[in-house]
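FW: tagging you since you asked about this chain on Friday. Here's the raw sequence from the shared folder, copied in full. Didn't touch anything.
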Amino acid sequence: MDCEFIEKEGQGYILCRKPDQPLRTERDVLDLVSACMEHNSYKLLLQEEALSAGFYNLRTGLAGTALQKFINYHIKAAAVIRTEVTAQGRFRELLAELNKGRDFRVFGSRDEAESWLLGGI
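HL: got it, structure written out here
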């Protein structure tokens, strides 16, 4: 995973950008959890390129596994994903529910995602 610790407004978060291999397995999810723990930052921002096609297909279970791990480890996570990708099928329904909560949200821009992660929204 291509992860970087970003410090902004006196707070830090882990930014996961386009990796050589996008998030595809539970092991990849655990690597993200480890990156958060290594930097003592329980905030995570995922860019769309870091997510595999399997993440959007709920039948693979990858999104559910990732979200459950984030919740279990108290990681507040945001994803920056284009609307065209999220506006499809069951994934759109899942996001509608998730965006009501405090654990995981999807945004159209990095600025919006950062603001939510850092407590501005």
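FW: The radius of gyration is 13 Å.
HL: agreed, and The beta strands are 3-8, 11-16, 43-47, 76-80, 104-107.
FW: great, closing this out.
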